[in-house]
Amino acid sequence: MVFFRQQQNKLRELRRSPRFEVHYPAFFDPCDGSTLQSCMICDISAGGAKLTVTSPIDMPAEFLLLFQRRCRIVRRDDRQIGVMFLKG
């Protein structure tokens, strides 16, 4: 993690965008013709995410992350909608 110590033992986050703890089931596509593999998104931000995977050593350097969330429309305007993520 990227932290540095401030006065009175308080830590400050140095990441560019805030991270949010989530527990989203997801899949990744190694993009090499093999099958999709499952993973769990543990936290997510505008710039990246932390994943739990079965075998980190076997992960390719680059891959396609796929996740889906069940949603409900909560707002409709012109050509845009707002959605709420549903649990489960």
UniProtKB/TrEMBL annotation:
Domain PilZ: 14-86
InterPro entries xref list: PilZ_domain
MF (Gene Ontology): cyclic-di-GMP binding
Gene3D superfamilies assigned: predicted glycosyltransferase like domains
This protein's name: PilZ domain-containing protein
Source organism (scientific name): Rhodoplanes elegans
